[in-house]
Each structure stands twice: as C-alpha cells, then as structure tokens.
Amino acid sequence: MARISLQGLGHSYLAAPKEDADWALKRLDLEWQDGGAYALLGPSGCGKTTLLNIISGLLRPSEGRILFDDADVTALPPDRRHIAQVFQFPVVYDTMTVYDNLAFPLRNRGVAPAEIDARVREIAEMIHLTDRLKKRAAGLTADGKQKISLGRGLVRTDVNAILFDEPLTVIDPHLKWQLRSNLKELHQRVRLTMIYVTHDQTEALTFADQVVVMNAGEVVQVGTPVELFERPTHTFVGHFIGSPGMNLLPGELRDGRAHFAGRPIATAHDAGAGAADGPVEIGIRPEFVSLGEQGDGDAIPATVTKVDDAGRFRIVELRLDDANAPAIKLLAPEEQPVAAGPARLRFDPAHTLLYRDGWLLEP
Ligand SMILES: Nc1ncnc2c1ncn2[C@@H]1O[C@H](COP(=O)(O)OP(=O)(O)OP(=O)(O)O)[C@@H](O)[C@H]1O
C-alpha cells in the first residue's frame, strides 16, 4: 500500500498542444492518502479516465511526476505498479469457475496453493460469492460478474490501490445500491486505497470519504461530502452537486457589503470583507432558502411560478420582479402549503456565499 502523489501533472493527447483546450488534464497537484476511500467525480469528458490511466500506468503523462510514497513511478509500466483496476464492463474468464477466476491473479504470481485457497475463500466470503465458487462464471448475472472483477482486485495482497472506473454502469438499478454499500463495507475491512470514478454524485457521495471534483481537466475541489455541500469552493461544485444544485444569483459588493435585488443581505463569515467592490455571484442552496411571512419587510419580494412534488419535499421555483434575474429554487417540506403568486424569500445568512470569477470569496 502507498500514498500516491501527483505532482505538476498535465496531459494532452495532441503532439503539440497550443491552447488550454488542448489539454485533457491541466496542471494538477494531488495527494491520495494511503487507505483512503476517494471518489473522482465530474461530467463526461472532464479527464477522469485519463487521470486513472496515468495512475495505473496505462498512459504516460505529457508533464509531471507520479510518486508511490517517495518512489517516482512515472516511467514504470502497469505491471510493476501493483494497481488493480476494475472497469465498466466485467473482465472475467467465462469458461472458468468463480474459484479459478479469483485464484487466477495469485496463480499468475506463483503464490503457494494453500495460501491461494485461503485467500480466495476469504475474498469470496467478503463479496458474497462463497456458494458460487464451483459455478462457471458464464452462468452469473452482470452484477455477479462484476463482483468477480472486484474480487480479482482484492485477492492480491501486493496492490497499492484499487481503481474503479464507473464499475456500476452495467448493473441493474436495484442492485446498484447493494453493490455500492458492499464496496463501502469492503473498504472498511481491507483499508486499501480505493479511487472510484463516476459522474454520478450519489455514487460518489455515498462511497467516498473524500471526493475529488473535476471539471474541464482541472480539479476544482477536494473535500468531504459535507464540505462540498456546505461550502463549495467553486460555482461548478455548487451547481453540479445537489439536486437541484445551488442557486447562483447576480449580486454586487458595495462598501464591502453584499447586495441582492437592490437591498443589502447578510452572508456567511463576512464573506465580502477584503474583496474589491463590484459584481459577485451569490450562491445559496435551495435547502437554505425559505418562504417568509407576507409583510416581512426584511424578506425579498418574489413570485412563486412553479411547484414540483419531489417526494418528502417540494421544489418551489420563484421569480423576482426583475425579468432578467434567474429563477430561484427552494425546498419546502411536504406539509407546507405553497400557493402560486406573490411570496417573500429568506436566505439563511450562514449559508449565503459569495463568488467571483467562479471562486468562493473567503474573508
Ligand atoms: N485516446 C484519446 N485520444 C484523444 N483524445 C482523447 C482520448 N481519450 C480521451 N480523450 C479526450 O480527453 C478528454 C478527457 O477524456 P476522459 O475520457 O479522460 O474523460 P472522462 O471524464 O473519463 O469522460 P467519460 O466519463 O465520458 O469517460 C476528452 O476531451 C476526450 O475527448
């Protein structure tokens, strides 16, 4: 096992990259702690697979270094990095039994038969395949096969990390949840470094202790699920995480105070302090916007234009008088009646954040 450090990493698939857009990965410094459960989350094309393939050695980066602990492995081929990779589609030998599939990586490395047997049984128990060990892999369903792929990664005792590249893509929706909690439990038992690539925020937030959010070849934030929710350091994270995502509203800093819809508003941590006056974006999650009483002079006048039922709560959409202002969303509890028409908005100051050029303004 090892701590994995990426230093000044950059990658372009072009021979002579000229502009920013030519880089699949822009300059990136990142450290993955030994034994951590990480998710790498971002939209399609943001560079997740490129980064994973650089860690496993399938791809040599155009720039920068990869260290496992203090050893520079940038030039090492995949088989000398001891990384297990689980892909979108299960990689199993259909004609072999489940047992032989799991034993394969160990036999390949000349491990003694008694040790192989003990290890295969231990892993089979962890992934709930003990009663299938004698069956041919061909007879298993997609999730059973994906469990074998996972088991083949776990069975080796020499791996530095296991990388999962969208491993639940081919799994039936109702089994996804089961396999995901299985993975989380496995991580707690084996404490191997696991990096789980996905574009699905639910998968990322339920699996990982730390989530690395990427956009357009850049890491925009590394944080716990709670940090990403409560304090997105970039508007991309605010918008991408959450359902619906963060409201991002045009505002202004005047004499160091945030203004919205022509009135001063309170923000978290005196967010505007030290920043130059001028336009800002006000970020507030729908969870922290509420409806004030009619006649509440401090609240912002608006009009409810849409109410959608979303199970335990309602998604309420409002508009300000200013036709150019974007719609604002809030979550109302199921039991709270919400009528279309005039309303008043309240923002929770502790969760009202300010952004400039996409980045959070910090005091
Ligand atoms: N072999 C390749 N040759 C040229 N360009 C590539 C190659 N592989 C990826 N790219 C480009 O690099 C960028 C990053 O792609 P990458 O596959 O790493 O993203 P991703 O986040 O994994 O996306 P997805 O979730 O769709 O797999 C994209 O613009 C993609 O088109």
UniProtKB/TrEMBL annotation:
One protein family per Pfam: OB_MalK
SMART domains, per the entry: AAA
Alphabetized UniProt keyword annotations: ATP-binding, Cell membrane, Membrane, Nucleotide-binding, Transport
GO MF annotation list: ATP binding
ABC transporter domain location: 4-241
Entry's family note: Belongs to the ABC transporter superfamily.
Protein name: ABC transporter ATP-binding protein
Species for this entry: Marinibaculum pumilum
